[in-house]
Every structure is written in structure tokens, then in C-alpha cells.
Amino acid sequence: xxxxxxxxxxxxxxxxxxxxxLIERPKKEDSAMKLEGLESDNESESxxxxxxDKQEDEFVAKPKTVIxxxxxxxxxxxxDSEGDAANDTEGYDExxxxxxxxxxxxxxxIDKMKKLSPEQLQKQQRKVKRTGVVYLSSIPPYMKPTKIRxxxxxxxxxxxxxxxxxxxxxxRNRVKSGGNKxxxxxxxxxxxxxxxxxKLAAFTLNGNILGGKKHSFYHDDIMNVKYLxxxxxxxxxxxxxxxxxxxxxxxxAELSLQHRMDKAFIDNVETSKMVRGxxxxxxxxxxxxxxxxxxxKQRSVATNRSGAKEEEKLRSEKHGNLExxxxxxx
Amino acid sequence: xxxxxxxGLPDWLCNALHAMRIIKPTSIQAxxxxxxxxxxxxxxxAKTGSGKTIAFAAPMxxxxxxxPCGVFGIVLTPTRELAMQIADQFAALGANVNLKVALVxxxxxxxxxxxxxxxxPDFIIATPGRLAHIISENPxxxxxxxxxxxxxxxxxxxxxxxxxxxxxxGCLKAIPDPTKRQTLLFTATVTDSVRTLxxxxxxxxxxxxxxxxxxxxxxxxxxxKLSLGFILTPFMVKEAMLHNLLTSEDYGDSSSIVFVxxxxxxxxxxxxxxxxxxxxxxxxxxxxxxxxxxxxxxxxAGAARVLVTTDLGSRGLDIPTVQLVINYDIPRDPDDFIHRxxxxxxxxxxxxxxxxxxxxxxxxxxxxxxxxxRKMEEYKKITDxxxxxNSLKATSKAKVEARMDMDREGFNDRSRNRKRRLELEAQFExxxxxxxxxxxx
Lengths: 330, 441
Known about the structure:
Chain A is of the alpha+beta class. Helix content of chain A is 55%, strand content 8%.
């Protein structure tokens, strides 16, 4: 395709220039060319798009599997699709749950790598190295992960997508005042299996309208896409992962402390039983037993009842306020 | 005195009371209503549940119906929940006579409340803090207060303490002098403050203060049908003990109230019990008002069978179905113990109260036993073995989880922030002039 050739030329310059989100296009003619190319591409997909639109109110959007033609490693493919499904549905859940999923969803994570053989491990690592992530600083209103996936899969194979849903409060207020009930998204990240595709997508889409059919819902929406240089999906979740780890280790420590305390209690119960048994036996033989007593610090008693004992009275500094009130009351 | 009519209430009020199935006046009502109608001030000794709300509401309404003007009466209570309960009763009594009652309590929209106060409602039921705030913020809106005829302090022993002193002073500023209004106080214990009021010489042109059963209330009687038990426990397995008790055969599905000393404990316990699948709700000062109201409602309706609460819930709550009161912590004030166990065994029903005693609580228990003149008996149906077998492990895990959750959600942040704000305010007020000088220089 023409697009790929274009991207091949620009690869080097792109990553440098894309530091800013709203970077100017290098040449307008080129972008126009690309748009044409895209449109022709779009026409072939348009029927799919309509289908997609119809499915939009489904709550669990399934990832499209159209793009999965090259089957390198079946196992990994499966893993990926799992991740996809999880991520695509995420937008509809509570934020907290999302975080959990985001953290638990490390398909490239270390836990799984440990089980792999060295060759497989290398293969995996190479794979991770090839991936590229783009950042979407704004999402067209009410666009869902499925649609994002569809748009980006024009440029190459997509890994995971994460869109941050808008604040629940804002959503609630909008619905209350009669606004759109659909969920909006604030920002998002999209992972490409190959970083070449990611760069191309960022270069092509950034600052441009989506286009497509004139009547399509998102025709005039402008995309903000930035390729994140040297950024992997794992970086996105690393902070969360770390937090989780800290939490877990703390939890473990507290649990073990608690277990120790429990054990001490159980031991004490047993000892007391033993001691009581011994006392019983001793009573038969001789009568005087030495009574061991421990002294505990006692919590204080305090009351403001006027009839109470003087040492039990609640001592408080005299504030003028109360006396003032008492004088004025009757 | 056998009927409300005989003690001087008008027909419409008698009918309203009749509609609420209140036919015979209780002793406090029979004794105080006629005297209050005569215009005497009153200090009444009464426990909650003895019908004192009607004892002050009925004469106030009678007088109000004769000559309604401006804001007729103000009722002050220490807790918001109690204020709501009283407001409900006023609304029920005045349903037929177009009575306007304003509820002025903290934790709800101040603008709405100010607007309501501005419209000169007939009666205001309030907690002192919010009322004082409104008075200081909008002195123009409370001009209606200048003709207040009645001031009622419910739970006066609690209100007349230092914690409410400042706010009460703020409230009294807007209310006319004692000679131009009647003051009704109801208290459950005679504190020093109440005693000074009692011994105060009568002001000129006023009838002597009516003292109702004030001497008698110190001799508390714990109802016979209320059994008092205790469980000896080390402090670290209290939670497990509680869980075991709440799921034991005796109390497996009875509704119970668990009293603790601190909001934090209440929140932790609620989380622990919820993790262990006990239908539980909590009531303490750290909750937003909406949740406080909701959780009380849930408990009343039976949606939750266990209520974990601080002393916030120890007074005034009238929930007849409560079978068990657990003192998870022993209160510092023996009188609080009396209030707490008074939540059960109401109106001749049976009830149990069980206290958890740790080695550090012995003095407190002895003080309580001396105060109530009764000895508690050890509750032996829960053994250490049972606790170890059934509850210990699960509770420990839940406890750790609950604590972690609370840490993460910043449970203590609210109170800490509030403390900090108050400190800063105090600092600012103290140093304000200095600072401004610095600025000028």
C-alpha cells in the first residue's frame, strides 16, 4: 500500500517531531494524499463499520479478529485476545475494577515468562521490544474502544487498548440534566504489535478529521494521537503494579503478625487449661496454693453526674461559655 | 389523672394523640403538662422512652394554638438523629392544624435551612451547632426569634457540657431573656450544671421552677427482664469473640446493637463483620449525615440486623426489636452504660446485655456495678475453644483486610483534616493582628 511506503520514509523524523501532541504536518500535500488513500480503504470497510454501529450498544464489545491473519505463535495470540477482551470491556466498569484488571493483565509480565523456556523467553522479549504505544489525549465524544480498535487496525495489528472513562460524577450530572447517557472517555492508550504501525497511525491521524462517509457519526471528529517513544504497555501499569506489590507485602506482614497473635492466644488457652488441671490435682493433696497475680493498668472512670464520688468526676477546664449559658438559661 | 383532656389539653390535640394510639398520659406527662400550661419553668428528670417528647410538645402546641406568633418554640437536642425523631413527632401531632416545623441540623444544606428559618416556622427543632452558625451568619433572618415563648433543652445533661457551651451561648444570643420565655429542661442525670440551675434563686416576676422526679432519677432501676452478662477476653481476640457471639445459636438471627467507644473501631468492626457476611450497618460521627440517616433506617427496617455504633446511638434511639446489646468497649462514664443497655428490654420486653471485659476494664466494671447496684454474671455459652474453632482465623484475615482498606481509603483523613483546620483557625484568630501588622510593614 501507498501508506506504508510513506511511513517508511518518515520513520526517523517522526519520533523526534512527535514530542508535541499538536505537531504541524510536514507537508500538506502528503497528508491529503494519505487521506485519499485512507478513504479508499474506508470504502471497503464501510459495511463493517455500519455493522459495528449497530452493535455499539452491546455492553461487552468483542474484539474484531479480522486482522489476525499471520499466525506466528498461537499461544501468544490467545493471550492477546484475552487481554483485548478484558480491556475492551473495561470502559464500562468501575474505575477501581479497571485498575485491578489493568494490573492483573500483564500478558508480557514476568510471572508468565518464568514458565517459558529460554528460547521462548527470548522470542517473547523480542516481541515486546517490537511493540509501540500511542497516546490519545482526547477521545471523540462517546467513541468506544471497539471503534478505536477499528480505526487503528487500518494501520496494523492492535494489541491492547485502554480508555479512561470520564468521572462518574460528571456523567451522573450530565444524565441528570438531560444530557447524553452514553459514557465518554477522557484519554487513552493503544498498543500496536509493531511500532512501525504505531508511528504511522500517529503521523496519519494526529490533528486530522476522521473522515470516512460524510454521514458517519465521527466524520468531523479530530483525533489527537501521539506516538510515545520508547514506551511499552508495561510502563503504563508499572506504577499500579508497584503499588499493588507494596500493598501485598504489607498485607502479608500484617497477616503474619496477626497469626502470631492468634497463636499466642491459642497457646494461652491451652496453658490455662493445663494450669487449671494441675490446680485441681493439687487441691486434693494440699490446700494452700500460691496465687500469682498480674497487675494491669486500669482505664479511668469519669462522669459528670453530680452525685458521683469526687475522684470519679470528669475534670475539665472551666470555660466561661457554659457558666454564661447557665446564668442566662433560667 | 386519667386522660389528656383532664390535664388541660384541647380537643384537637387529644384527637391527634388518640390517632397515634396515645390515650393515657404517663406519669411525667400528667405531672408536668398542667404546670407548664400554667407558665412555670420545668426541670424534668426522665429517661428516653418515658414519653417526655409529648410532655413538652403538648403544652407548647396548646399555647401555640391559642396565639400563634412568629417562632413560638425552639427545641435543642444533642444529636441530629434525636432531632429528627422529635421533628417527626411534632409533625405527626400537628398534622391537622397546619403546623410548620423546621429541622435545623448539621450535615445538611445550610441554605435550605436558612430559608426555612426565614419563613418563621412555628417550631424549630435544632442541634445547637448549626443553629448558632445560622444565627451568627444571618442575624437578619432570625429576627423572628425575638418572640420565642418556649425553649426546650432535651437531654440537658448532655447539652450543658463544655462541648456544647459555645454553641448554646450563640443560640441564646438571639432568644429573649428568661423572664420573657419559658424554659423546659429534661435530663437523665443530675450533673453539676443541672444542679446549679436547680439551686438558682427564682427571678423576679417568675413562678418557681417545677422539679419533676429530679431526685429519683439517680436511683436507676435496670429492668428485671434485662439480663446482664459479661465475657472475659483478651483485647486481641475481641473481634473473633464478637463474631462468634453474633453467629451463636442464641443470637444467630436476633437484632443487636454493638457499642464501641470510638468511630474508628465502629468502622473497622462494620467492615470486618461485613466481610464475614453478617448483615451489619454502623452509626458514628465520621459518616456523612446521609449515611447516618440511611444506616439507622436500615436497622429500623430490619435490613441490617447488627448496628455498630458509638455513644451517638446510646440515647434516644427507640427500636423495640433489639434483643441484645453488646458493650464491645466499656464506657468511661457509668451512666453511659445505663443509657446503652437501655436500648433493649424496652416496654416490658426481654433483653440481654453482654459486656466484653479486658484486663484493663476492671475498675470501670466495678464502678458500673456499684452505680447500678447489680452484679453481672459471666456468659458461659461462648468458650475459647469455640472461638478458636469457628471465628479466629476468618476474623483475623478480615481484620487485616479491613484495616488495609481503611488505610487506603483514608478513613481518618476527614477527622484529621478537621482537627488541622480548627487548629489553623485558632492560630489565625490568635495571631491575626500580628500578621496584619507584618503585612503593613
